[in-house]
Amino acid sequence: MGCSGSIVSTKVDRLPQPREEQIISNLETNLPFSHKTVRELVSTFRLSSFTETLTSSQLRKALEELSWTTYMQSKNNSLGKIISLITKNNKTPVITLCFMSILLGKASLEVKSEVLFTLIDTEAKGKIGVQTLRYALHALIMISIEILPQIAYDCQCLTFAEVQDYGTWLKRKKNGLINKILKEVCVGSNEISQSVFVEKIRGMEKYQRFLTANGIRTLLLTEELPAQIENSGISKIIVIRRKSLGNCDFESMSPRSCASEVGIRTRYMFDNDERRLNESMDISPEDTWQGKRLFEE
Questions:
Q1: In terms of pTM, does the model score above 0.70?
Q2: What digits encode the pLDDT tens for the residues 123-148?
Q3: Residue 197 contacts by C-beta under 8 Å, 6 or more apart in sequence?
Q4: 39, 107, 122, 283: which has the fewest C-beta neighbours closer than 10 Å?
């Protein structure tokens, strides 16, 4: 299928097949994060730099300390591909690596919630605000639905289109899930202490797995479609690719071939400037599709 002026449409009232999730979650278990504890992973990444990012040499040292050098040199190195997606100008955000560690590393829900709180309580006040938690949940979800699923494409288990369609479907329901988790955890309060935070998360029966990548995607799969989308009569997602791409084979396109890099720039995520926050946190599907997503009735 040529890319020049071509259109792809997907029904939004169709639940994605579980095949995509099974493939992605199985591949995630092969990433080396799953063999280390969350505390060890986070401690290693944070102690490897005095700033918010890791240089290539600092990252190499951190991977050596985690005994991941052999894995990085292996033929099927999905970790290297994931790191390349979140790295910009040879700098890898520490917070993104730490969030990945929470999502993929070994730990109980209680330990993961403690580590998450410590990461986002940047001023060490012992309390975090609702907005800070919202930004953190947003980052965890975006890593789970935009970054990690790319390993399925890199391993040629899913096509680029399948990965993007799956992520786009889940992304449409993320705000609803975030609001429900905030309601459960914060219970109307604008701030929450670490002890209450951990206690609330531990007591959330429905969201016990929301601090794992697979758990987040599973929760999004079961989340209802937002009413403004469901009731608007929208039945298709239309993807128009730029004519400048010529007659390329869309299925052979790589996420790295796009003009805009796919990545999460989280270093501003706790900044008080909402404009910068929105710019740094958003990973737009337009970036990865090299075009526009339009809706038609």
A1: yes
A2: 888 999 999 999 999 999 999 999 99
A3: 113, 117, 128, 185
A4: 122
3-class SS string, the chain: CECCCCEEEEECCCCCCHHHHHHHHHHHCCCHHHHCEHHHHHHHHHHCCCCCEEEHHHHHHHHHHCCCHHHHHCCCCHHHHHHHHHCECCEEEHHHHHHHHHHHCECCHHHHHHHHHHHHCCCCCCEEEHHHHHHHHHHHHHHHHHHCCHHHHHCCCCCHHHHHHHHHHHHCCHHHHHHHHHHHHHCCCCEEEHHHHHHHHHCCCCCCCCCCHHHHHHHHHHCCCCHHHHCCCCCEEEEEECHHHCCCEHHHCCHHHCCCCCCCCCCCCCCCCHHHHHHHHCCCHHHHHCEEEEEEC
Express each pLDDT in 256-294 by its tens digit.
Answer: 333 233 333 333 333 333 333 333 333 333 333 222 222
What residues does each domain of the chain span?
18-226+259-290
